[in-house]
């Protein structure tokens, strides 16, 4: 069983036709068809059913798809490892995480620190570890810990804030804001699937007060836009935009937060390097108070700045 033929098979699966697969892999269509027939004879099962409208997977083909993906992925990872060990290429890791985590954590970290993260793929929090199990990525970052059996690190926490336009009553006073203060205003918060909403619901449940949001947009940016338009108070972990003012929320004198966790395969060929990379990411997250405004960089020291002697020396 040749990896090259497995890639042809997956190209047919992904494109839905022999002709489109041939274009993708730059091989003549009759050659692909012939080699896939040979693969079927080798396996003793029909994988693809040829029809006038294209091809479709048989029951055996559907069961073989994840096997073929796993084999080709492991081969690619093995090549990456050997090239990295030989010094011909750096280690490169792919990350799956919610879009907000890309915007406020992964992308700013890479911009400032470099590091081995070369791709970040956006998905819902409850899909992160599924993407990891499927082999699409090397690391998953989500608001809940990974399932048992995975290597994990708690990266840190991000504070949840209430954001309002200038002049709003909740802007007054500054400092942290108790969660109970929100209940006299229309609340804009994402759906129950989000970590922010779950944290909010849990905190209010402990106080015996159910939440009835005025709006439940899926996008944090849309929640901020609605708040800026005067429709209520948005509750998010994202940095303010649209000139909103933010006040960090507390509940029963405790900061309202969401935690971030990284998970990866403990048998990953670069387990030690991933462990070190997530440690660096955790340190950066804590040093930057839960993330950074999109597009921003740390303020550089002045040209004449120097740390100076330790006054206690």
Automatic annotation (TrEMBL):
Matching CDD domains: PBP2_LTTR_substrate
GO MF annotation list: DNA binding; DNA-binding transcription factor activity
Q: Per the record, which residues fall in region Disordered?
A: 286-313
DNA-binding recorded as keyword: yes
One GO cellular component, as annotated: protein-DNA complex
Domain of life according to the entry: Bacteria
Does Transcription count among this protein's keywords?
Answer: yes
Q: Which UniProt keywords apply?
A: DNA-binding, Transcription, Transcription regulation
- Give the HTH lysR-type domain ranges: 1-58
> What's the family?
Belongs to the LysR transcriptional regulatory family.
Protein name as it appears in the record: LysR family transcriptional regulator
Q: What is the lineage of its organism?
A: Bacteria, Bacillati, Actinomycetota, Actinomycetes, Kitasatosporales
